[in-house]
Sequence to fold (594 residues):
Amino acid sequence: MSTKNKIGVVVGAVLILVWCLLPVAWIISLSFKSQDAITNGSPGFLPSEGGGAGWQNYSDVLADEQFRRAIFNSIGISLIATVLSVIIATLAAYAIARLEFTGKKFVLTLALVIAMFPVVSLVGPLFDMWRTFGIYDTWPGLIIPYMSFTLPLAIWTLSAFFREIPWEMEQAAQVDGATSWQAFRKVIVPLAAPGVFTAAILTFFFAWNDFVFGISLTSTENARPIPAALSFFVGADPFNRPASLLAAGAVVSTIPIIVIVLLFQRKIVAGLTSGAVKG
Amino acid sequence: MTSATVAPDTERTRRRKRPEASDRARAENSLGMRLVAPAIFLMLLVTAFPMLRALYLSLFNYSLTAPEERDFVGLSNYATALTDSLFWRDTLNTVLIMVVTVAVELVIGFVFAMVMHRVIFARGVIRTSILIPYGIITVVSGFAWQFAFSNNNGFVNGWLPLIGDDFNWFGQYGSSIVAIMVSEIWKTTPFMSLLLLAGLAQVSEDMLEAAKVDGATWWQRLWKVILPNMRSAIMVAVLFRALDAYRIFDNIFVMTAGANGTESVSFLTYRQVIEQFQLGIGSALSVLLFLSVLLIAFLIVKIFRVDLAAARQEG
Fold:
């Protein structure tokens, strides 16, 4: 690589880092500004002289019952939806990668259509249906939509992954004297586990990020997830929000995502691209 | 293997191409269908069934505040929506947001992908950072940018030259929509660049070397070798992002709540159904929204196919 190219790559890399981290740094900075400074106007990136609040915003947010409840809802709903969705997607992806059966095309087409679905189109009828079934404003009322909307992503990621597994190894193990169940469990399951895990992370992101279902299929703190709770964490006037408190809430709700990204960066990239490009 | 062990497990491991195994083929077929059944059921329960119901409800004048007065009105909800200037204004808005954000993301995302493809140092750090916007809740990024653009406590006015410190970004249509697009672009460019990076990895280095030896300039290599070889990756990225952008809702809800005419079609639909309980007209809007998304998908696939054919004739 020539020196000119090298400089270009370095500049580009710095640009990427600034692009990705600037708004994050900004919201963290905002969360340390005091409520007074915000109300009286506190332009600029960092908290101004005397306008800092220390951890006050964080302790206020964490002391807020509705906020704690929303975090609890989000974690519970997202985890349950993820586990169930990944189990169902694993069965489907296994069938797609390994078996010949009628309706294979149908599953893949259906998954594609759903991935493109305008979610808002469904909230009206779902709102109506869920009230009839009695699951409006409950955990299952959100878990079911999350599951069906994360299934396409999970099915693609997993079937792209399962296709790469050398299935002959299963037979080789059987030749060596393992029963078919042993062969499956000892050889295939360990090979499949990373793919299943990747699909689970992506599914969790989706559920954690959802907003449309969160605001339209809940009405109380019974099931309201964190994105919806944050957006309702305001007075009637959308132009005068308690910015510093909201920022603290936003940081708290982002921590789980950052932790997952830091731990599983490699897997997430592999999952995102294999599902979309090869699938 | 004895016949006693011919359980589903062994059927699964059989070789597919043996023609005499019609029993096994049948067993495989039914096992396959049983394994995908739960996924199909769930996906249909939450999409096909509600969509059919929306289609049905869209033919009624039906308000949840007066359910007894529901009556059949045929296609008049569609006529109302399609002749309403609000619907067209919101559609234009949505199309504008979609076209601008996808175009900008494609360019920035491609630059990012090129950098990530070439970068040798700090690979892990960059790949981790690029996942952060992808993972962050859209509502949070909407808030971050709304506050950043605020003239009361933001930093954008202070950093941008030629813009007064008291400029109110959310005071009029043009600047509001720019702020919304910035938030949308920030959040989704990483996804675009990761897909393009995967496409870039499939471009053969040998071909690039050969072009270099033949004296092709960097620019020529980009247009004649890299981009044509990435066509499918680009198409997938554009298709996904365009359809995603057409559903834009979260950012608008958080940043302007539709003020100054910045509403999208999704937002209009949401307001009709959830805020005003107008299930009839809301369902008609839902159906129209779904049809628009289908139309866009169709157009993108079609346009890229034409490109494909044209490129082949050139070659």
Notes: Chain B touches chain A through 117 residues (CB under 8 Å). Confidence is low (pLDDT under 50) at residues 1-15, 308-315 of chain B. Chain B is about 75% helix and 0% strand. The longest helix of chain B spans residues 22-57.
